[in-house]
Amino acid sequence: MIRQSLKYRKTITVIGFLCLLLLVYLLLILKRDINDKVTSHQRLSKKEERIFESEPKREKHVKLAKMELDKNIHSTIKELQDAKARIEHLEKKIAILEGRIPEKYPDVKYLGYKERKRILVTGGAGFVGSHLVDVLMTQGHEVIVVDNFFTGRKRNVEHWFGHRNFEMIHHDIVNPLYIEADEIYHLASPASPPHYMQNPVKTIKTNTVGTINMLGLARRVGAKILIASTSEVYGDPMVHPQPESYWGHVNPIGPRACYDEGKRVAETLAYSYAKQENVSVRVARIFNTYGPRMHVSDGRVVSNFIMQALQNLTITVYGNGKQTRSFCYVSDLVDGLLSLMASSYTLPVNLGNPVEHTIEEFAMIIKNLVPGCRSTVATGAAVEDDPQRRRPDIAVAEANLRWSPKVTLKDGLQRTIDYFREELSRTTFYNNQTYMDINVKPHN
Ligand SMILES: NC(=O)c1ccc[n+]([C@@H]2O[C@H](COP(=O)([O-])OP(=O)(O)OC[C@H]3O[C@@H](n4cnc5c(N)ncnc54)[C@H](O)[C@@H]3O)[C@@H](O)[C@H]2O)c1
């Protein structure tokens, strides 16, 4: 009995032990499961945490990208606005240019092949040259203007741009020129003292080398050539009025010599080519000429006085005002040049208006022609080598060309004043400057 109860006790103990082992095992499994779940939960949170942490960075990137895009859009808009402004500016410029180009050219006569000449005008964009071009064009000729625009302006001839009879060549006549022409009006040379004194060597070259080039061209193509000489070949004359036979009184080393002597050599060259090379030459000795398209900073008496009168400034007379000048209106001069070219007279011819005025009188005439002018007339220091008397003897022109000036001083001045008034209205002045402050040097 005892032995049996001992046997049961052993069995129960073993079973109990086994149950305990099983329980421990189950507990261990349960613990591992719980741990696994806790770890996986923790892992999820870290990912979430990372996502959470990265959120502001992404926003920052998005913000930066947006800012970059805004900047690009802004600069593109600015570029477009700039381009639009530029286009508008160019459109305005084109409109102005279109306005300047006449839809209809001035009336031009039709000339047949045999009558129509090819005429070269050197200095054709200048004051006298452009008026000459107008007449030659309206007569129906083919006109070629050659100019280096030193004192000339395209504006003087722009009303012919595009016309089938008109051509313009930007060229300095100090260099040779090879073109075809039937007639040459050789006018290229600065004409007013401030311009020709600005570069005296160039003035001499233009009147000597340039004239040789034009005479050479005339010889090559068999053209008739007219040389624009000047009353300055008489210098400060000792004979009054000056006939063509007067040889002059020129200071060869004075401030005006580059022009005076340059023109004297030009005349000598013309007659040398005529004698030696049989070139058909005409020589016009031009006296003071005035009119629209004169250079406003010409610095000579007409432009100076008119500009001063129009701006109510003191009209300045250099010297005592008793020196005399005679002034020819530009259309009269052009008629004279055309008549001379057409004539068979080959010696020099004076072209000018013999009506003589003292500079003092002239100042008063201009003052009285400008309505409401409040200018006073004052005298200044005399200018070196300023000729005291100037008046053409035009008997040769009257006899050989049947030419004499027609336009009265009053009419001519009135037209010139209107032109200068228009020029003044185009100019912008700063700090109370006047035209004289900007441009003008003393010369009568
Ligand atoms: N206007 C006058 O009162 C007057 C008086 C006497 C003589 N002239 C003579 O008449 C001619 C015309 O005078 P203007 O009053 O018309 O003068 P301007 O200055 O208005 O015209 C001269 C023209 O010649 C051009 N020119 C100058 N040097 C040149 C060069 N090396 N090559 C090409 N072109 C050149 C200028 O650009 C200008 O278009 C000149 O020869 C001048 O000496 C004029």
UniProtKB/TrEMBL annotation:
<dbReference type="InterPro" id="IPR044516">
    <property type="entry name" value="UXS-like"/>
</dbReference>
<keyword id="KW-1133">Transmembrane helix</keyword>
<dbReference type="InterPro" id="IPR016040">
    <property type="entry name" value="NAD(P)-bd_dom"/>
</dbReference>
<feature type="transmembrane region" description="Helical">
    <location>
        <begin position="12"/>
        <end position="30"/>
    </location>
</feature>
<keyword id="KW-0175">Coiled coil</keyword>
<keyword id="KW-0333">Golgi apparatus</keyword>
<keyword id="KW-0210">Decarboxylase</keyword>
<feature type="domain" description="NAD(P)-binding">
    <location>
        <begin position="120"/>
        <end position="415"/>
    </location>
</feature>
<dbReference type="GO" id="GO:0042732">
    <property type="term" value="P:D-xylose metabolic process"/>
</dbReference>
<keyword id="KW-0812">Transmembrane</keyword>
<dbReference type="GO" id="GO:0070403">
    <property type="term" value="F:NAD+ binding"/>
</dbReference>
<dbReference type="GO" id="GO:0032580">
    <property type="term" value="C:Golgi cisterna membrane"/>
</dbReference>
<comment type="pathway">
    <text>Nucleotide-sugar biosynthesis; UDP-alpha-D-xylose biosynthesis; UDP-alpha-D-xylose from UDP-alpha-D-glucuronate: step 1/1.</text>
</comment>
<keyword id="KW-0325">Glycoprotein</keyword>
<dbReference type="GO" id="GO:0048040">
    <property type="term" value="F:UDP-glucuronate decarboxylase activity"/>
</dbReference>
<keyword id="KW-0735">Signal-anchor</keyword>
<keyword id="KW-0472">Membrane</keyword>
<keyword id="KW-0456">Lyase</keyword>
<dbReference type="InterPro" id="IPR036291">
    <property type="entry name" value="NAD(P)-bd_dom_sf"/>
</dbReference>
<keyword id="KW-0520">NAD</keyword>
<dbReference type="Pfam" id="PF16363">
    <property type="entry name" value="GDP_Man_Dehyd"/>
</dbReference>
<comment type="similarity">
    <text>Belongs to the NAD(P)-dependent epimerase/dehydratase family. UDP-glucuronic acid decarboxylase subfamily.</text>
</comment>
<feature type="coiled-coil region">
    <location>
        <begin position="66"/>
        <end position="100"/>
    </location>
</feature>
<protein>
    <recommendedName>
        <fullName>UDP-glucuronic acid decarboxylase 1</fullName>
        <ecNumber>4.1.1.35</ecNumber>
    </recommendedName>
</protein>
